[in-house]
């Protein structure tokens, strides 16, 4: 009897252990399911408030609607945040998470790491992260009616968040105190990364669903950007890609990335492009880098400086006016003699860049030498050989503009 009793007790213990383990495993999916329902309810309420807030119905109190929308938006984000911590975090911790969930958790930690030192950026990036996470879930669910409703909110909110992130970076670029690194290299990197992220996730979606007819102005530049999404990019490709990004930004982010900041971004690219031409030793690669630099100089002068209203000094403004008048004169050749137009335009850009290089503290002696060889080849400057020779038959060459 004692032996039998022990067997029964042991069996019961095993049985109850199995039941407990099963229940433990069920708790996590149940929690996900509860969160899913909560998110769905909060999302539906948010979309309703959003649609009311953009409605033209005069019977609605706009101020009251905006307050309700803000409250529903906060509740929606809270439910998403709770989902990450209650569901994804537990699955990662228990080793049952998918690759998507592991990546989602890693991104969550990446965003929250900004909280202490970069709170403003953290605030906008966390919203962006949570909304993107829900959007990916909606895409998987294949609910077309929900997707159509959500996309309108998604695009509108993402536009706002990206603009806020870029505006935050713009303030840092314009800051002349010693709080941030004077070179500000990391801020430029973040600006270009954010522009790239926007174009790939939001602009591409807008173009795909024909969101706005005004986007026709940037479609050609977007297609140009797409060409850099294939294959591995070298330094020259990356500079060209960032040049295209800045060109698009002048049409989409004129307020959050103002001209004064865009100008500094262009100057950063010019610095990188000049260094590339100067440091590249293989002739064919140097020629490609040089061609890219000429295109960048044109972009900088035509897309940005030609729209500049406020100059640091009247002298700089007058200098640019002279350059601009010469450029317009040369542009007349485009229809009648395209080859001559390209040649004269290149000469103008080289001479103008030489003036700029002479004002910098960076050693561009190799690039200046390369520029002058180009001007000699184009017949823009002459080489005068004097008759004085040294013992080793050395002939001094003087270049005259």
Helices, strands, pairings?
Layout: H1 2-53, H2 62-94, H3 99-112, H4 119-141, H5 144-174, H6 185-208, H7 216-226, H8 235-252, H9 259-279, H10 283-304, H11 314-331, H12 333-336, H13 338-357, H14 365-377, E1 382-389, E2 395-400
Antiparallel strand pairs: 1-2
Helix pairs in contact: 1-2, 2-3, 3-4, 4-5, 5-6, 6-8, 7-8, 8-9, 8-10, 9-10, 11-13, 13-14
Report the strand count: 2
Strand order of the largest sheet: 1-2
Helix-strand pattern: HHHHHHHHHHHHHHEE
Whole-angstrom Rg: 30 Å
**Which stretches of 5+ consecutive residues score pLDDT under 50?**
1-13, 15-33, 397-401
Describe the sheet with the most strands: 2 strands, antiparallel
Class by alpha and beta content: mainly alpha
Q: Give average pLDDT, whole number.
A: 84
- Gross morphology: elongated
Distance from first to last alpha carbon: 115 Å
Strand content: under 5%
Number of helices: 14
Helix content: over 70%
For this entry, give a set of tags:
401 residues, 14 helices, 3% strand, single chain, mainly alpha, two-stranded antiparallel ribbon, 2 strands, 76% helix
Explain this structure.
The protein starts with a helix and ends with a strand. Helix 11 runs antiparallel to helix 13. The N terminus and C terminus are likely disordered. It is mostly helical and 401 residues long. Strands 1-2 form a two-stranded antiparallel ribbon. It has 14 helices and two strands.
């Amino acid at each position: 009897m004692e032996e039998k009793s022990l067997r029964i007790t042991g069996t019961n213990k095993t049985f109850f252990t199995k039941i407990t383990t099963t229940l433990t495993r069920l708790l996590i999916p149940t929690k996900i399911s509860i969160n899913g329902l909560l998110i769905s309810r909060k999302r539906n309420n948010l979309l309703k408030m959003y649609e009311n807030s953009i409605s033209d119905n005069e019977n609605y109190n706009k101020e009251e609607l905006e307050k309700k929308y803000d409250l529903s938006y906060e509740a929606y984000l809270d439910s998403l945040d709770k989902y990450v911590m209650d569901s994804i975090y537990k699955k990662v911790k228990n080793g049952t998470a998918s690759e998507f969930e592991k990546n989602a958790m890693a991104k969550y930690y990446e965003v929250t790491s900004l909280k202490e030192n970069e709170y403003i950026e953290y605030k906008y990036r966390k919203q962006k992260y949570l909304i993107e996470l829900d959007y990916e879930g909606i895409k998987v669910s294949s609910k077309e009616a929900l997707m159509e409703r959500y996309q309108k909110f998604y695009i509108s909110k993402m536009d706002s968040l990206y603009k806020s992130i870029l505006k935050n970076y713009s303030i840092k670029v314009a800051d002349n105190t010693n709080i941030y690194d004077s070179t500000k290299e990391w801020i430029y990197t973040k600006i270009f990364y954010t522009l790239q992220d926007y174009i790939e996730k939001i602009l591409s979606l807008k173009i795909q669903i024909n969101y706005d007819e005004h986007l026709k102005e940037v479609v050609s530049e977007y297609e140009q950007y797409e060409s850099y999404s294939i294959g591995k990019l070298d330094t020259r490709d990356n500079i060209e890609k960032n040049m295209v990004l800045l060109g698009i930004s002048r049409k989409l982010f004129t307020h959050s990335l103002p001209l004064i900041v865009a100008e500094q971004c262009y100057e950063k690219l010019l610095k990188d492009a000049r260094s590339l031409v100067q440091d590249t030793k293989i002739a064919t690669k140097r020629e490609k880098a040089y061609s890219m630099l000429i295109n960048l100089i044109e972009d900088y002068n035509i897309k940005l400086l030609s729209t500049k209203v406020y100059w640091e000094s009247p002298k700089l403004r007058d200098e640019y006016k002279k350059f601009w008048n010469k450029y317009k004169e040369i542009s007349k050749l485009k229809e009648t003699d395209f080859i001559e137009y390209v040649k004269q335009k290149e000469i103008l850009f080289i001479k103008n860049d030489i003036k700029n290089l002479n004002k910098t503290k960076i050693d561009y002696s190799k690039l200046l030498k390369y520029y002058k060889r180009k001007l000699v080849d184009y017949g823009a400057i002459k080489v005068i050989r004097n008759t004085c020779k040294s013992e080793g038959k050395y002939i001094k060459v003087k270049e005259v503009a």
